[in-house]
Design goal:
The complex is a heterodimer of chains A (846) and B (229). With 846 residues, chain A is an alpha+beta fold. In chain A, the strands form two sheets. Chain A has a six-stranded mixed beta barrel with strand order 2-3-8-5-7-6. In chain A, strands 12-14-19-16-18-17 form a six-stranded mixed barrel. In chain A, α1 (13-24) packs across α11 (307-337) and α2 (32-67) crosses α11 (307-337). A six-stranded mixed beta sheet of chain B has the order 6-7-8-3-9-10, sandwiched between helices. Chain B has a four-stranded antiparallel beta sheet with strand order 2-1-4-5, with helices on one face. Chain A: It holds the Pfam family MacB_PCD.
């Protein structure tokens, strides 16, 4: 009967908006840090997504120009008569190109350099153009002994159109400067600049000898290209048997997209980590924000506000703050995306036309909103449980009840979000689970350790210690302590920051080459058997050392343990690629036997025990004592795997996957490689000149030049890696600062009380410093240990590299985190101490 | 006369550190509509707990609380919130004005919660009555303690409550300001004909009400009517 009198007022939704607006009025500056952690995370993601989006659009748009034809068939082996018959029947129009490395000699300047020689016949490219100065040279150069020379070469040797170059035994007139060819990137033209000559004159150059590494390409144009994919599928078995690769517009699209997958994945992962840090930031900022609102919410509840409506008021606030942060992030990210192509342009095969990617902007804003709300929800849900009794009893503590089931749902959603989003970045479930579980593990470890810390501090701090120490340490476990929240947020931020720093180091090590004073800096290859002695003498006459002289024999695998290419479908890759092997009687300094026994010499009719690089052996699925039959230019050689080697590929010397003992391959068709060290660029130029004139087929690589070019390129890659990692690190620092700053409000009242009771400014600062120093040290140490473990796992399982944390930078990082925590904590309490206690008490009361 | 508040066999027991702590034990009393009552007692006697139960801020461990003939123990928290909004007014010791709202907005909140429209004039007239019409756009932090409590009075009466609970309304004010606030409280109460329940230490203030319930150790020590001043 009584219940009939119960009123049931209906609050209008517009009033909730009005109240959300009013309530946020005086606290907006408090939410600035919350906003900044979202802003940076979203900015990083939008930049990366937009770049990816633009790149894919340009690849799709320019794919035809990348291949220059509807179908490209390529072989590194000779062409059989049967295959030639097929090749001659394909396409409505066809062109042919032979590509190989060769030295050219600039007759006017006397300079010489290794180039990528392309001997072309036909009207290729059918889509896009070979761009030259003067325009049109690409169409006319095939009419005579003319060449198109890459512009970097023209500049390097101060050559002009009309000058001559010597290619092998033949002299060509430079018909034009090559500025752009289909599918060519800045990086490829810098490392191996291209020179086009007409195919009809190739034989006369006398550069093509047995064992020369030549790639033959056949370009086809179809009047109706729609059937090309089906044709390739039909031809596939035949092409595979003949050692041909097929490239179509569609496959090039995929391939080009794929080659940027790693870059995109790293960029996306850095952005994602920035965003995850943003999540930590959101979680901790909102937790403290709601704590500060406790009184106001309790009062509103006293006045008749329903719990659902109290929750909605703060949900609306978070929605709009999250939206604002996401919008700012999207604008910032869109700005940054225009920088990425500037840095990456040397690696891009297509012209990037950067424009605002509304898809990326939309994704960024949506993600920002989801994160803002999802990670604020645990604190927001607690608003529903705030009792109106808090308004009349400041010390009211809710009785310990069961956790809100909705909280578990939110935690589940958070886990699902991290898992789902990680999968979108990683694309494999194993990596996704590993990453998500690692984060969950770090989270749980930090929670457990913070509880252990509180327990130990309570038990172990002696009563005899000075008041300042006791007070500082007691702050770690007393009611309203921030130990759990700060340990988790500082620990996670430190773990993320350090992991990014370490991974960046691992990546940088992978892309840097070792070059020292005693290392060779010039490589001569394609040396024929008959030329070895002459070249040795020439090298010695220049007083240059013979540092590494090895024979190279080209071969293919014919059988593995009795199985041929056609019969072993699980190991196709093993039979497909050409292998360049050597023979030697002793191991080099870069090689170490890891399994089996090394055999350096074999007598006729004895079993031939070869040695394989261990990762190559793993790839072709063989181990010690397995039998392999090699096809060396038509001759089959039976071998047994005698040993596996670990090879240090980063050493500046020739290394091989397959090494034969001496006594087997001496008479096989082969060429030699010689490495030496030239003291200066003048000697280099003179020596190269002599080599080209006396041994025109021998190619020379000036590693100093290549290293310099690589250094420039690597520094650009490094910049991108550092830039993106820096983004995440900046977010980490912001989250760290925000965690400490938001926690200070818990300390303000008691600092004022102590001040009122007569504590000196110095004493209060010292108490705060002790608390923050201990918290910072503890959380940073745990974060650092987690990060070292994580980086080690990443290095071992993801990058296949060794990881030793660099001592000094690690200590510096650790020190910086502790210093930042203490400085932020102490500086934030200084502002309180600089004002009269009464003034602050009044402000706090309100 | 009709009772507006009936308290029957009300007990409140808290669990603290694994043992039961009885804060209120078998409390019984009724308050007639329009009367003024003071609940007094020493610190820790259970006054504030009793006020919390009477106003529907908390649930009794046993017994019944009927407010305006509504049995509060049968309602969930949101229904009790609706009852508070409709029938109850509050004055707190530490004013409890919402710091992000102006004086005017603070006064308007209880009516806005009801979904009432065109309330600004009513809220302004209340602020005028407490002498703060010219401070309507000031935030609480810009007002003195006495001014804040006057805004709190205006807010308490804004929804024309059937019963008004005041928890140590002068506890945070100096003697002179207390005097002014109390006078204002009784004047407004007289005009509105509201039932007034004051929880206080202050015996002088208690003496100004028509009835004083003294509690100690969670039980009623005395319940006396006096001449209304």
């Amino acid at each position: 009967m009584f219940k009939n009198n119960v009123p049931n007022p209906h609050i209008q939704f517009s009033w909730l908006f009005k109240m959300a607006w009013r309530d946020s009025r005086k606290n907006r500056s408090r939410l600035l840090l919350f906003i900044s952690s979202i802003v940076l995370g979203i900015a990083a993601l939008v930049a990366v997504y937009a770049f990816k989006d633009n790149l894919q659009r340009d690849i799709d748009g320019q794919a035809k120009e990348l291949t220059g034809a509807d179908l490209v068939l390529e072989s590194r082996k000779g062409v059989t008569k049967a295959m030639q018959k097929i090749l001659d029947t394909l396409g409505d129009e066809r062109s042919q190109e032979k590509t190989f490395a060769s030295m050219i000699y600039f007759q006017k300047s006397g300079g010489s350099r290794l180039v990528q020689m392309k001997a072309l016949q036909g009207n290729y490219p059918y889509y896009g153009t070979i761009e030259t100065i003067p325009v049109g040279a690409a169409k006319t150069f095939q009419r005579g002994k003319s060449a198109l020379v890459d512009q970097t070469l023209m500049l390097q040797f101060d050559a002009k159109v009309g000058d001559s170059i010597k290619v092998g035994d033949l002299t060509f007139k430079i018909a034009g400067t090559l500025t752009k060819a289909p599918g060519q990137t800045g990086i490829s033209s810098s490392v191996a600049p291209t020179v086009y000559i007409p195919l009809q004159f190739l034989d006369q150059t006398n550069l093509i000898k047995t064992g020369s590494r030549i790639s033959s390409k056949f370009y086809y144009r179809y009047n109706n290209p729609a059937g090309v994919e089906a044709l390739v599928k039909k031809l596939e078995p035949k092409l595979e048997k003949e050692g041909f690769d097929a490239d179509t517009v569609e496959s090039r699209k995929e391939q080009t997209g794929r080659s940027f997958k790693d870059v995109n994945r790293f960029l996306a992962l850095s952005g994602f980590i920035a965003l995850l840090l943003g999540c930590v930031g959101v979680g901790s900022a909102i937790h403290v924000y709601i704590q500060e609102k406790l009184n106001a919410i309790a009062t509103l509840r006293c006045l008749g506000l329903k719990s659902k409506d109290a929750f909605l008021i703060y949900l609306i606030q978070i929605f709009f703050i999250g939206l604002t942060a996401s919008l700012i992030g999207a604008v910032l990210g869109t700005g940054i995306q225009f920088l990425l192509p500037l840095v990456l342009k040397d690696f891009l095969p297509v012209e990037i036309t950067m424009r605002i990617s509304w898809l990326a902007v939309g994704q960024g804003i949506l993600l920002g909103l989801i994160i803002s709300i999802l990670f604020a929800l645990p604190s927001l849900l607690s608003v529903r449980k705030i009792s109106p009794l808090n308004a009349i009893r400041a010390s009211f503590e809710k009785s310990a009840g069961r956790r809100d089931p909705l909280n578990w749902l939110v935690y589940l959603l958070m886990g699902a979000f991290v898992l789902g989003f990680t999968y979108l970045q990683m694309k494999t479930w194993v990596q996704t689970f590993a990453f998500t579980l690692s984060i969950a593990f770090a989270f749980v470890v930090l929670i457990i350790l913070s509880k252990v810390l509180m327990f130990l501090v309570r038990k172990l701090i002696p009563n005899s210690s000075s008041y300042l120490w006791r007070q500082g340490f007691a702050n770690l476990y007393r009611p309203n302590n921030q130990t759990l929240m700060l340990t988790v947020s500082i620990g996670l931020s430190t773990a993320f920051i350090c992991t990014l720093f370490f991974v960046q180091g691992i990546l940088m090590n992978r892309v840097s080459l070792s070059s020292g004073n005693n290392q060779p800096n010039m490589v001569l290859f394609d040396i024929q058997n008959t030329q070895t002695q002459g070249l040795d003498s020439l090298t010695k006459s220049f007083k240059l050392p013979l540092m590494n002289q090895v024979p190279v024999i080209t071969m293919r695998i014919e059988e593995i343990n009795g199985k041929k290419a056609g019969t072993d479908s699980t190991n196709r890759g093993a039979f497909r690629n050409e292998i360049r092997a050597t023979y030697q009687d002793t191991l080099t300094a870069a090689e170490k036997i890891t399994a089996g026994k090394w055999t350096g010499k074999v007598n006729p009719n004895e079993t031939i025990y070869i040695s394989l690089d261990q990762s190559f052996a793993k790839r072709i699925k063989v181990g010690v004592n397995d039998k392999i039959v090699f096809n060396v230019q038509g001759m089959l050689i039976n071998t047994v795997v005698g040993s596996l080697r670990e090879v240090n590929w980063s050493r500046m010397q020739t290394n091989f996957r397959v090494v034969f003992p001496t006594g087997v391959l001496e008479d096989a068709p082969q060429f030699h490689v010689l490495m030496t060290r030239v003291p200066s660029s003048e000697v280099s130029a003179k020596f190269q000149g002599s080599v080209v004139q006396k041994f025109p087929n021998v190619s020379v690589i000036d590693l100093d030049l290549v290293l310099k070019l690589l250094d420039e390129l690597l520094s650009k890659i490094g910049f991108v890696i550092r830039f993106m990692a820096g983004f995440s690190m900046a977010t980490g620092w912001i989250v760290l600062i925000s965690a400490v700053l938001t926690s200070k409000n818990q300390r303000i009242k008691e600092s004022i009380l102590l001040r009122t009771l007569g504590a000196s400014r110095k004493q209060i600062l010292r108490i705060n410093a002790i608390e923050y120093f201990f918290l910072g040290t503890f959380a940073a140490a745990v974060g650092l240990i987690l990060s070292i473990a994580g980086s080690w796992a990443l290095a071992k399982f993801s990058f296949d590299a060794a990881f030793i944390p660099p001592l000094l930078p690690t200590l510096l990082l650790f020190g910086s985190v502790v210093l930042l925590v203490v400085a932020t904590g102490v500086l934030s309490s200084r502002s309180v101490l600089n004002q009269p206690p009464l003034k602050i008490l009044r402000n706090e009361g309100n | 006369m009709e009772s507006i508040l009936n308290i029957r066999n009300v007990s409140k027991i808290y669990q603290s550190a694994g043992r039961a702590l009885t804060v209120l034990d078998q409390i019984n009393f009724s308050i007639t509509a329009g009367s003024t009552v003071a609940i007094t007692g020493p610190s820790g006697s259970g006054k504030t707990t009793l006020l919390g139960l009477c106003a529907g801020l908390d649930r009794a461990s046993s017994g019944t609380v009927e407010l305006n003939q509504i049995a509060l123990e049968k309602l969930n928290e949101d229904q009790r919130a609706a009852v508070r909004n409709e029938y109850v007014g509050f004055i707190f010791q530490n004013f409890q004005l919402l710091p992000t709202l102006t004086a005017l907005e603070n006064v308007m909140v209880p009516l806005e919660l009801r979904g009432a429209k065109n309330i600004k004039a009513h809220a302004l007239s209340l602020l005028d009555k407490v002498g703060l019409a010219d401070r309507s756009h000031h935030y609480p932090v810009q007002l003195s303690g006495g001014e804040q409590q006057r805004v709190s009075l205006a807010r308490a009466f804004s929804n024309q409550p059937a019963i008004l609970f005041a928890d140590e309304p002068t506890g945070n004010l100096d003697a002179e300001t207390s005097e002014k606030v109390i006078k204002l409280l009784f004047d407004l109460n007289k005009d509105a004909g509201t039932t007034l329940v004051i929880v206080t230490h202050d015996l002088d203030l208690a003496a100004k009400t028509g009835r004083t319930i003294k509690i100690k150790g969670g039980t009623i020590l005395s319940d006396e009517s006096q001449n209304y001043v």
